[in-house]
Amino acid sequence: xxxxxxxxxxxxxxLPFFYRFVVKKKPxxxxxxxxxxxxxxxxxxxxxxxxxxxxxxxxxxxxxxxALMRLQYGYVADTSNRNGVDIMVALDVSTSMxxxxxxxxxxxxxxxxxxxxxxGRPQDRVGLVIFSGKSYLQSPxxxxxxxVLNYLDQIHTGMIEDGTAIGMALATSVNRLKDSExxxxxxxxxxxxxxxxxEIDPETAAKMAQALGIKIYSVGISQR
Length: 224
Known about the structure:
By secondary structure, this protein is an alpha/beta fold. 40% of the residues lie in helices and 19% in strands. The chain has 2 domains: 2-72, no CATH class; 85-220, von Willebrand factor, type A domain (Rossmann fold, 3-Layer(aba) Sandwich). Helix 1 runs antiparallel to helix 3, helix 4 (106-119) runs antiparallel to helix 5 and helix 6 packs parallel to helix 7 (202-211).
């Protein structure tokens, strides 16, 4: 989260001066002592209701300044990992990953293995793609491994319509790695099934990866 035009913050600091020297500035006058003493106890004190228009104007000015500062949230692209390794993880979240041939089940074991793997690669950028009947980018390539681990904790089966679109998962991963300047680019595929969905078959996606110098490592999650 950041402000694109942070320098507009000086206007926020200028508001108190604006209020003091412009809004509260009184016209020049020469009050008569007797006149003031007579009206001193008759003029009602300013209330919040009286000052409400002023407060609203100040609030509008503050919001306008914040808008000019342009608060932004999102990921900052990082393409400087020229000497490291960029790794896109493609994780199967189809309902078959609920099978209990691993304890407590396949998806939990896969998440735990990935967490240990990511924590052991502190210098590398890691991204995450999840897939079932379709594939989706869950996390772009980043060195903020805590963010990727948080995404892993949120992953569960049934997030996407069922199926096993391995080709689409590979294609999505290739798309995220194609502009990488890293010395080594890797796709780590974790699945328990065979491709049965998606518009792109695994062989086509693998050829795309090969053409771009991307290596694919496949891990089968099944004891059957």
